[in-house]
Amino acid sequence: MARKAQPAGGYATGKDVAQRAGVSTITVSRVFNPAWEGKIRPETVERVRQVAQELNYRPNGVARSLVNRRTNIIAVVIGQSAGFFYSEILTDLVRRIQKSGRQALVFSLDLYDDVARILEQVAQHRVDAVVVTSSALRTDVMRPLEDMGMPVILFKRSAEQTNISGIWCDERQGALLAADCLLRTGCRQIGIVAHPHGGTGRAQAFAEELARQNITPVQTVWGDYSYESGQQAARKLLTDHQLDAIFCEEDTMAMACLDVAREEFGLRVPDDLAIIGFDNNTAAALPAYNITTVAHPIVDMLDALMEAIEQVTCDPHTPVRRQFEMSLLERSTTK
């Protein structure tokens, strides 16, 4: 069937589609609203979409936002040094946001960025809510987030001491699992690779658990969750000390430590050196690494995050808070 000409005067409107399809403009709006999927007769949906295709009609998101007082845009703020783990989360989160009929607007917050400037950019887009990942958080970010005047949801960072929403894991409990794994296998000379500004509390909780067993970490070396920083940390630890274990705050750095230990120092893992990571990213589970790690229930957390987005956009004054437990995945880098 030949495509009919577009209405004179520019873009086709919902009214044009409604007139040609023989339905109301409300029906046209509902056909293109994901919230109404499955609630309209299939033959009506097919007829409306066919006419829309003929007229090259696209729903006007700007007009819809003026009516609803919502932009249907969710801002996602992520740190640059986020590693594989956050890349995987970001892909899934954007897909989920789009499936809900919204759009994601991603902002990158570098360690040295002016926090106020980045948050001002977010505010200029009049987004319906802001999701901030823990990789983007420094201590000085919390107060500006609380003062933004729009719904903010922390993801993978506790919101207990704030007046904003949050979906997070008990990362201290996760760090205790890692410490217990090393201690019960006889490790005593333990090094730590941690992020100096991560704010997760993982390394601190890990060291505190060692202290309860009268063990002091041999040394803590800083890394920014990148592979290169993990390499540098491993070289320093293994050059300066005779270790039997390394705890890394993030899996990418643990992967680097494993490569350096085996390839540069000729160590057998886990016989000579045990290594534990954190986050359970996909790469760490590859056969070449198969790293013991502490895992988040990511699917459940993302489900909870989407529920939180729905709730805070309807009721921005009531914070939503959910905490999840973590689990230890024992693989081939520990005994």
Overall description:
The protein is 41% helix and 16% strand. The protein has twelve helices and twelve strands. The strands form three sheets. The chain has a six-stranded parallel beta sheet, sandwiched between helices. Strands 7-6-8-9 form a four-stranded parallel beta sheet, with helices on both faces. The radius of gyration is 25 Å and the shape is elongated. The mean pLDDT is 87.
Briefly characterize the structure.
With 335 residues, the protein is of the alpha/beta class. Helix content is 41%, strand content 16%. It has twelve helices and twelve strands.
Task: Identify the CATH architecture of the largest domain.
Answer: 3-Layer(aba) Sandwich
Instruction: Please give the domain count.
Output: 3
Class by alpha and beta content? alpha/beta
Percent range of helical residues:
40-55%
User: How far apart are the termini?
Assistant: 68 Å
What is the H-and-E element order?
HHHHEHEHEHEEHEHEHEHEEHEE
CATH names the topology of the largest domain as: Rossmann fold
Residue fraction in strands? 15-25%
- Strands ordered across the widest β-sheet: 2-1-3-4-5-11
Gyration radius, in Å? 25 Å
Give the overall shape, derived from the CA principal axes: elongated
Give the overall pLDDT as a whole number: 87
Helix and strand layout, with pairings?
Layout: H1 14-21, H2 25-31, H3 42-55, H4 61-68, E1 73-79, H5 83-99, E2 103-109, H6 115-124, E3 129-133, H7 142-146, E4 152-155, E5 165-169, H8 171-184, E6 190-194, H9 202-212, E7 219-222, H10 227-240, E8 245-248, H11 251-263, E9 274-276, E10 293-295, H12 298-314, E11 321-324, E12 327-329
Parallel strand pairs: 1-2, 1-3, 3-4, 4-5, 5-11, 6-7, 6-8, 8-9
Antiparallel strand pairs: 10-12
